[in-house]
Amino acid sequence: MTVLRARGLGKSYRRRWALAGCALDIPAGHVTGLVGPNGAGKSTLLGLAAGMLAPTTGTIEVCGGVPGSGPAQLAKVGFVAQNSPVYPALTVEDHLRLGARLNPGWDAALARDRVERIGLDPGQRAGRLSGGQQAQLALTLGIAKRPELLLLDEPVAALDPLARREFLQDLMASVAEHGLSVVMSSHLVTDLERVCDHLIVLVDSQVRLTGEVEDLLASHHRLSGPRRDLGTLPGDQEVISVSHTERQTTLLVRTEGPILDPAWTVGRLGLEDLVLAYLRGPGAEAPRSLEVVR
């Protein structure tokens, strides 16, 4: 089952394309990581999926319907924007009452259980909560809506390492318990590695890579060996990145077949290596706007 399908999807602002020619099939029941440098189109894609933006070109279908097309469709999608959007003057309890009034499928018991479990004071104003507590409150509102798809736009970017880990652990527990599908954008590759089993890489407003993380890692290899002309490579080996020294060539290639040339030393990749290679592109420096935080 596909929770999000896009074909030829594009969004432009005057003369600038924030997203262009996007084709995606995101499977249901997965946690999908959405990664790319600043300005790549991550927030635009999430805004289109939530129905907050209308596409300039192409189509997008979310949970079997058109985003933002009516109350029934809006109820299927939860969206937590950047900076943990809560209302500073309202208490935690006020947020839960507001969630109940705005969402027909609101699970009041779930919301109260989460607030109690993570130690939030219902009478505390949201503006006096820590960054981690505000993020947890925003996540509570998104989950208690009981959506089929939860969209998270940089939910942990402003949190310290402990708060990030607690947030992600709580997210994974909710995914396991409630069968959520999640699409989460982040600059923090190591956080995605902890929680995501599906990946989308956006570069220059276009999809550069998408697929199951396990399959992507299995089909990419780092090759190192004596310096050579890339024209001698087999036709089924797609070069993703390349570097040369006077005597050595190092490549990252994508192929479904085995590496048979004995001159190559074959190395395994982690998710961080894979993502950075696609962001870097052949012969370019790694983008500085992508953070790798441990």
From TrEMBL:
Domain ABC transporter, by residue range, is: 4-229
**InterPro entries linked to this entry:** AAA+_ATPase (IPR003593), ABC_transporter-like_ATP-bd (IPR003439), ABC_Transporter_VariousFunc (IPR051782), P-loop_NTPase (IPR027417)
**Top-level taxon:** Bacteria
Write down the Pfam families for this protein, in alphabetical order: ABC_tran
Q: Which UniProt keywords apply?
A: ATP-binding, Nucleotide-binding, Transport
What Gene Ontology molecular-function terms does this entry list? ATP binding
Name assigned to this protein: ABC-2 type transport system ATP-binding protein
Q: Which organism is it from?
A: Amycolatopsis magusensis
- Give the classification, highest ranks: Bacteria, Bacillati, Actinomycetota, Actinomycetes, Pseudonocardiales
